[in-house]
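Reply to dn_fold:

You asked what the input looked like. This is it:
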Amino acid sequence: MPFLTDDDRPLDELLLAQRPDDGHRFQVRAPFAYLDPVGGQRYEVPVQDAASSPGDAGDGAAGSDLASVPSALWGLIASYGRQSAPALLHDHRSAVAAGLGDRRAALAQRRVDDRVFRTALREQGVPVLRTAVMWAWVSADRERQFGGAAGVLFVAQAVLGGLVVAGASVAAFWNPLWLVLLAVVALAGLAWGRLAAPQLVLAFSLGWLGPFALVQFAAIVPFRLVEAFVELVSGGDPAGVWRPTLR
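and this is what came back:
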């Protein structure tokens, strides 16, 4: 079992504190470790300071939102579950990389850590497609945050590629020749070399899975708007309906 307690027993529980009690962030209350079967390295996830607040800096002191999935999409990919331990590990490693203070060093470190995240997800039994999508999205966030102009281009191409994939897939019902555009998107993605895999996953997942996400948003937005109106007329906080809630 790749995840271990601090005394090297198989990890059979995650001890977390929800802070504040009506918030959406969690802090690790018992340390654990991960043994990477690819690189052979041991990664430690320490206890997070209970005295820190969500705005504090440091090695993950602000805590984690577990898997960073928008609440409207939890019906597709939950924020917790088999992915919880890998997500906590990844959040801690991301904080460590950001704390290096050097963009190039942080980018190099995050590329390693994102691969470890993908490996950990698979070892926890997360399905292949879900693992690929989660890994591609953290890769996109990494390139955006630390990749400079090339990172912005990487994300922009993925979004454009997703739109092309979606449009070509729909248009192919009338004329199959539109599917040629899928090859164009694939070739453009391959041009990224070692970043080709996340680029391709991003473009094709946006194109083929994006409509399901839009349906999720379309279903939840009207309900949230009704909630906001009721809060407004009852003297509550309309903005609060967009946050994950305890009840």
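The two ends are 34 Å apart (CA to CA).
Hope that clears it up.
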